[in-house]
Write a sequence for this structure.
């Protein structure tokens, strides 16, 4: 069903509630909402979240953000949606990011072949793969805690070791990059992306302290 024919999810009251929620750290509510909307295939609602954040700011108390704060919000939203790709699928991430771009002012966009806030192009072409994969394994171990070896072993013995390789690549090059989102914020992305999908076996992950 086209998203245009679906009932609206967001309202100003709900967005205000999310922004002021006492259990959500400041500067997280908007990208957590964006991740959840992407995973449930409602990219049409993501511009509403983003525009509200650009107007009200990322803190718990509404306030018009400065340009630097708006840039932080835009980059966090994009990075959270990129990190949703290994969780909810690349097609949904593509739709979400393209929807977000329709309401992103040019001054808040990062164009190709210019400055990259994540430095992923440098990581891909200039840093040894072993360094990135080790970082990813460290992040995976932190996320899964005491069951990390068992979970990775299950993927390696799933019938194709390519599943384990895929996980290592995703954690190395996508999820463990903390240039824009911290490790803690990235763990929020994982939780926000997994819960709507009702994939209980994968919810062994935890939010980092």
């Amino acid at each position: 069903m086209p998203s245009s024919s679906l009932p609206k999810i967001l309202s100003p009251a709900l967005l205000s509630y999310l922004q002021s929620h006492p259990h959500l750290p400041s500067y997280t509510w908007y990208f957590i909402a964006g991740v959840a909307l992407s995973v449930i295939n409602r990219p049409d609602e993501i511009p509403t979240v983003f525009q509200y954040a650009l107007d009200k700011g990322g803190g718990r108390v509404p306030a018009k953000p400065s340009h630097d704060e708006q840039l932080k919000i835009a980059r966090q939203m994009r990075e959270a949606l990129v990190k949703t790709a290994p969780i909810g699928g690349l097609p949904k991430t593509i739709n979400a990011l393209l929807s977000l771009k329709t309401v992103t002012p040019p001054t808040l966009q990062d164009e190709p072949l210019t400055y990259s806030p994540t430095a992923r192009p440098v990581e891909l072409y200039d840093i040894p793969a072993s360094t990135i994969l080790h970082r990813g394994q460290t992040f995976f171990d932190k996320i899964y805690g005491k069951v990390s070896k068992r979970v990775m072993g299950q993927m390696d013995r799933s019938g194709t070791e390519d599943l384990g390789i895929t996980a290592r690549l995703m954690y190395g090059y996508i999820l463990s990059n903390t240039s824009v989102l911290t490790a803690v914020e990235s763990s929020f992305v994982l939780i926000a992306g997994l819960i709507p999908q009702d994939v209980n076996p994968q919810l062994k992950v935890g939010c980092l302290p």
